[in-house]
Structures are given as C-alpha cells and as structure tokens.
Amino acid sequence: MEEIKGKSVLILGYGQEGKSTHKYLREKHPDKIIGIADFQEVKDCLDSTATKIHTGSNYLSFIAEYDVIVRSPGITLLTPEIQAAINQGKQVTSATNIFLSQGRGTIIGITGTKGKSTTSTLIFNILSKHYADVKLAGNIGKPALDYLADSNENTIFVLELSSYQLFDLKSSPHISVLLNIVPEHLDYHGGFENYIAAKENILRYQTEKDFIIANPNHSTVLLLLAKTAAKKIYFSPEKTAHYHYNSYIEDGYIVTCKDGIKQQVISIKDIPLIGAANLENILAATTVGTILDVPLTYIAEAIREFKPLRHRLEFVGEYKGIKFYDDSIATIPQATINAIAALEKVETLIAGGHDRGLDFAELGTYIINKSIKTLILFPETGNKIWEAVCKASPHKRPQKYDVTSMEEAIKIVYQTASVGTVCLFSPASPRTRWLFNTFDERGDLFKEYLIKYG
C-alpha cells in the first residue's frame, strides 16, 4: 500500500479481519504507528510499542485523528463518523480492497443473499481436485490478507464476499459469481437500493477480459448483468430459449455445454445436498469448474463427496422418531420457504429472531399451504410471522407457542411432535441479539437441547 506512506492509519474494528489487517500492515510498515479502535477491549494486540489503542463507547471519535481508515465489515459505511471522514477527504478502505489491489493469481469472488458459503466451499473443493494451490478466504475461512505472503501467479483464490465487504469495493474479481439478490441487511445498508448497489460492486469494475457467472432468471440479477462489460456465463435449473447456458438440469442430470459440446456431469440422485436452492449453488460451482477446465469427473466427484455445511439445512439426527434439521443460517423469509420446500413432512417449525423490517407475508401463506401444525416462535419477529399466518388464514392455523429460550422450544417439540415427522429450525430472521451471540450459537443450542432431551 504505497498510498499510506507518510499517512496515519486507523484499523476500525479488531475482530478476525482487523487482526489480519494489522498483521499485514505491520509486516509492510514495521515502524509505522498504527491505530486500533474498537468498542471492546483489545487484549491480544500484535504489538504495543508502535500501536495506539482506542477503546470504549467513544471509539469512533478517534477516526478524526487519522488520514486512512481501514473499516472492518461489521461497521457500516453509513456510520456518521465515517461519513464525516469521507466528506473531509480522508481515505476509507477495507481489507478486501487492500487484498484485491495487492492480490496475485486468479481471484474468484462469490456473492449472493443466500448460498455463498456452500457455493464457495464447493468451488474450492472442485478446483482443489485439479489445481495445486487453491485458497478459500474472505467471509469464510481465513481472511484473504493472511494468504498473500504465500501466494504467486498460480494461486487461485476463492473469495466469499458479503454485502458488508462489497459495500465500498473499488475493484472487482476476475471471475465473479452472483447467485441471487433478495432483501437482507437493510438496516446496515440503509435500504434495499443500497444493498443492491453493494452487490453490484462484484461486477461493477469488471472489463471484457473478466467473467460474470449468474442465473439470469433472477430479475434483480438480470438488471445488474446489463451494466457490466464482463463476459456473461449463465447457469439455471431450467433451460430457457432466451439464453445460452453453460450449466443446467436436463433429464435428471447436471449438464454442461461448453464450446457447443453438451456433457452430463452427475445424476441429481447422486447429489448429497437437498433443495432447489442447493441445485443452483451446485450449478454455479460447476460452471466455475468448467470455465477453468477442471475435468468433469473431478467436478462430479467433488459434488458427490460434499457434506452440507453446519447450520445450513443440516440433518442433525432422528430422536424419538422425529427428524431434526438445523437451518440456523436462514436469516430471511425466503430461506425458510426454501428449507420447508426441500423437506417432506415438516410438522414443526421453530422460527423468529431480530427484526430487520422484512415482510413475512409470503412465509405466512407458505406455512398455511404446507399445513405445518406447530409453530414455535422467538422474539422479535415471532409476532410478525404469526400475524402473517393469521392474515393468510382466518381459521386453519398451526398451534403457536412463544418462547424465549432454545431449551423451552425443544421441550415443546418433544411434547407435541408426531413420530415420523420433521422438526425444522429455520428462523427466517437474524439471531435475537439478547438471546444468542451468533447464528452458530443458536444452531448449536438447538442441537444441544434436542440431544439432551431426546
């Protein structure tokens, strides 16, 4: 980062990515005074002699003292202190921007409201079958900057990118994968338009030498595809006459068509992941593999061997004759609809969480149409989900239980669920902040208590 020479630098937020940024900058600039600002106490700083630490409730006020601010993803660009810094001409950047400006090799960026982690991991597994130096980084795995020192022109980076990381991106990956876009993180971005604009950054700076891989049958995605100069490569479960698809489903098989040659990759029956959403993730990953010339036998092998990621429509087990699925990652209504659609005999749904102002009308109708018998709801969105259910049907409704602990929820499941049915934990909302620290924690507690009482 030549542009920071002679300038003061503040790392804003000292989580995993902040620590990685600190390590990277310290290696590049061993004598530079670097500031760290975080609400929490900084206990494991790399060094203390050349670092200024600012903590506490007023940590954002120290932005004014620095020339360059490296923002961690958890801190929105819309924070008033950051906006003031931008208006004053200060440079506000991120670890992702630093990585993309310094990175070597081939960079593949993956984003979408849902499916990023599964798709990124599957791409990594596919490419690792054929290439010697593949790194999985970004919003999953290690921070990307941690890999730079050991990378070269032959390295392939598979980079999962959240909307938080894309918000102020100044360059785009060579190969970008855009899975889907539906409303999410509206409080962080200040509205759906800003959220879409953040996602657009994955292709905004691409040129005709780059590639964008996407399903054009998603309306918002299609609008963004019209704005890029990159070569467009399409995938979709349903092949239509409007586009030439690289990967699609035909006669029960994943099929690829490259250079006019159509080939079967794998039978749908041999795929270990369930649900239509996962089929799209697999098609996207298959497309990446084909354009990077991975043999189809390796692609099929990677798909066949893939195990569902934790908390992503994960089958936990069968206890007292009830099958339990953990879909704690479902932070939007559409994700829960997809999860219900992927399973049979969902009798019990556990849902609800932090309120980001999303609309639950479609989920309410779907719950009624699928004849779910028991609804166990957490605050804050539990009330909204129930209101949507009531509007969908004045009479035929599930039995509703309001809970404030996972232990309470699981006890109700065992008291009410029928043998041979499915209990799905798919919250349709982010975690309730005063109940769970992370989505992982609420998923882990779901597993812990169903095993304890099962």
From TrEMBL:
<keyword id="KW-0436">Ligase</keyword>
<dbReference type="InterPro" id="IPR036615">
    <property type="entry name" value="Mur_ligase_C_dom_sf"/>
</dbReference>
<dbReference type="InterPro" id="IPR013221">
    <property type="entry name" value="Mur_ligase_cen"/>
</dbReference>
<dbReference type="InterPro" id="IPR005762">
    <property type="entry name" value="MurD"/>
</dbReference>
<dbReference type="GO" id="GO:0005737">
    <property type="term" value="C:cytoplasm"/>
</dbReference>
<dbReference type="Pfam" id="PF08245">
    <property type="entry name" value="Mur_ligase_M"/>
</dbReference>
<dbReference type="GO" id="GO:0009252">
    <property type="term" value="P:peptidoglycan biosynthetic process"/>
</dbReference>
<protein>
    <recommendedName>
        <fullName>UDP-N-acetylmuramoylalanine--D-glutamate ligase</fullName>
        <ecNumber>6.3.2.9</ecNumber>
    </recommendedName>
</protein>
<keyword id="KW-0573">Peptidoglycan synthesis</keyword>
<dbReference type="GO" id="GO:0051301">
    <property type="term" value="P:cell division"/>
</dbReference>
<comment type="pathway">
    <text>Cell wall biogenesis; peptidoglycan biosynthesis.</text>
</comment>
<dbReference type="InterPro" id="IPR036565">
    <property type="entry name" value="Mur-like_cat_sf"/>
</dbReference>
<keyword id="KW-0133">Cell shape</keyword>
<dbReference type="Pfam" id="PF02875">
    <property type="entry name" value="Mur_ligase_C"/>
</dbReference>
<dbReference type="Pfam" id="PF21799">
    <property type="entry name" value="MurD-like_N"/>
</dbReference>
<keyword id="KW-0132">Cell division</keyword>
<dbReference type="GO" id="GO:0008764">
    <property type="term" value="F:UDP-N-acetylmuramoylalanine-D-glutamate ligase activity"/>
</dbReference>
<keyword id="KW-0961">Cell wall biogenesis/degradation</keyword>
<dbReference type="GO" id="GO:0071555">
    <property type="term" value="P:cell wall organization"/>
</dbReference>
<keyword id="KW-0963">Cytoplasm</keyword>
<dbReference type="GO" id="GO:0005524">
    <property type="term" value="F:ATP binding"/>
</dbReference>
<comment type="similarity">
    <text>Belongs to the MurCDEF family.</text>
</comment>
<feature type="binding site">
    <location>
        <begin position="112"/>
        <end position="118"/>
    </location>
    <ligand>
        <name>ATP</name>
    </ligand>
</feature>
<feature type="domain" description="Mur ligase C-terminal">
    <location>
        <begin position="311"/>
        <end position="428"/>
    </location>
</feature>
<keyword id="KW-0547">Nucleotide-binding</keyword>
<feature type="domain" description="Mur ligase central">
    <location>
        <begin position="110"/>
        <end position="288"/>
    </location>
</feature>
<keyword id="KW-0131">Cell cycle</keyword>
<comment type="function">
    <text>Cell wall formation. Catalyzes the addition of glutamate to the nucleotide precursor UDP-N-acetylmuramoyl-L-alanine (UMA).</text>
</comment>
<dbReference type="GO" id="GO:0008360">
    <property type="term" value="P:regulation of cell shape"/>
</dbReference>
<dbReference type="InterPro" id="IPR004101">
    <property type="entry name" value="Mur_ligase_C"/>
</dbReference>
<keyword id="KW-0067">ATP-binding</keyword>
